[in-house]
Amino acid sequence: MNETLKTINGRVSLRGYDKRDISKEDLDAILEAAMRAPTAGNQMLYSIIVIKDEATKKILSKTCDNQAFIATAPVLLLFLADHQRWFDYYEQNGVGEYCDEHGLLFEAPQESDLLLAIEDTMCAAQNAVIAAESLGIGSCYIGDTVEHYEFHRELFDLPDWAFPIAMLTLGYYRPEQPKVIKERFDREYIIFDEKYRHLSKEDYDKMFASRAKIYKEDNQYGAKNFAQMFYARKTGAEFSKEMARSVRVAMKKWDGRILNKKKFHD
Ligand SMILES: Cc1cc2nc3c(=O)[nH]c(=O)nc-3n(C[C@H](O)[C@H](O)[C@H](O)COP(=O)(O)O)c2cc1C
Q1: How far apart are CA 60 and CA 70, in angstroms?
Q2: What is the pLDDT of residues 99-128, one digit of tens each?
Q3: Ligand 1 centroid, distance to 42 Cα (angstroms)
Q4: Spacing of C-alpha 86 from chain mean position
Q5: Rounded distance from Cα 260 to ligand 1 centre (Å)
Q6: Disulfide-capable partner of 259 in 75, 106, 114, 184 (CB 3.0 to 4.6 Å)?
């Protein structure tokens, strides 16, 4: 295996860190690697907020589903799916007037723009993860930044079209820190040839056999099997409800409203 594959295959989500601060040199290398990620139309539809302030980290450890380890990471990187820059630039350079003159609609960012920006953002984030890992710096994604949209918007002074899609904790591995490589589903359930493969009940039973071993009858959720237990813990949990509410509020901004001065009628 070459060094790149060793780095990728040896990565784990790290939730406990060495006390050392991340050196400027290493942090710069991680941020530069993030910006080298592929990006749709070379637009770089993301922003990255570097967070070192202890008070902000503490706040995020609470607002991101009460995950105390967040506050212990020397650095947090908040990744924003960001279309604001391009639209500010368009507005400053008369794109609305151009569209008026040419009978075109000048539409605000909408769902499709958000999805594309998220694709861009996550490519950059994953480059940061791998670069960090190669420098002996562990990381963990935090998906809960999409919760409490109104609060996070205020905390980071976010404009309408910059959405906090994910965060990375960063910190050096401790010396001799044990790494547990988590198993994945078998590739036959994930990777298909040419067309989608619809899985049977038997397939699912085999696919989940290993994970379902952690199911216990006397679980706190009153669940009768692993699927019910997992749903109660994750998909149907309170934090997921808050995610749904928060994202719905944020999505209202990505509405594709017409920004031209000229009135267009259907
Ligand atoms: C989008 C995304 C969001 C995640 N959010 C969290 C999180 O909020 N807290 C956490 O401890 N881990 C989080 N993780 C890490 C996953 O739990 C982890 O990747 C998974 O359990 C597999 O473990 P591994 O990364 O060590 O292989 C997240 C990962 C991704 C990709």
Answers
A1: 7
A2: 999 999 999 999 999 999 999 999 999 999
A3: 28
A4: 21
A5: 42
A6: 106
Dig out the tokens for 67 from the structure: 């995950």
Structure confidence by residue, pLDDT tens digits, 37-58: 999 999 999 999 999 999 999 9
What's the pLDDT band for 261 if we cut at 50, 70, 90?
Answer: confident
Tell me if 76 sits within 8 A of 60, measured CB to CB.
yes
144 lines ligand 1 (CB under 6 A): yes
The pLDDT, as a whole number, for residue 223 is 96
User: What one-character-per-residue DSSP string does 57-94 give?
Assistant: HHHHHHHTTS-GGGGGSSEEEEEEEE-HHHHHHHHHTT
C-alpha 158 to ligand 1 mean position (Å): 25
Residue 26 has pLDDT above 90, yes or no: yes
Per-domain boundaries in the chain: 3-182+236-251
Strand partners, 77: 50, 168
